[in-house]
Amino acid sequence: MTRVADDSRSGAVAPMQFSRRASAEPEINLIPFIDVLLVVLIFLVLTTTYREQMLLHVKLPVAKAEKETLPVKPIQLTVTAAGDYGLQGKLLADHTAAALSKVLAAQLSGDTQPVLIISADAHSSHQSVITAVEGARLAGIGHITFALRSAADAPRR
Hints:
Helix content is 31%, strand content 13%. It has 3 helices and 5 strands, in the order αβββαβαβ. A 5-stranded mixed sheet has the order 3-2-1-4-5, with helices on one face. The chain is rod-shaped. The relative contact order is 0.12.
């Protein structure tokens, strides 16, 4: 057996003295956290790029305000908000497509390519405009134009 530390004077064995380590403060290691966030960021970047390819690419039509050449005398049909029809400034009594076609056919006066301009009120019903178009079709008018105002001329609300 080995004697560890003995005091030669008293003959007793001296206790061992352990040195205490300085208590280390707890640390948060951020490097693995940053690595995980970087992987998540790369995943999100890659998935959003593929999502863009799945979108539908639609080219919307553009209206051009070029002046169209019309025949000498186009037929002017007006549709009011109440659903009344006016032809060349005169109010019509009957509101059916058949009656409109008879009146429109009388206005043709032998024109081979007649043009009908429909001026409908912004608050007129969709059915009233469709009835006017149906009457024009029954009268044999193939070219129908809708009158409108440009956005610059419209009143501001």
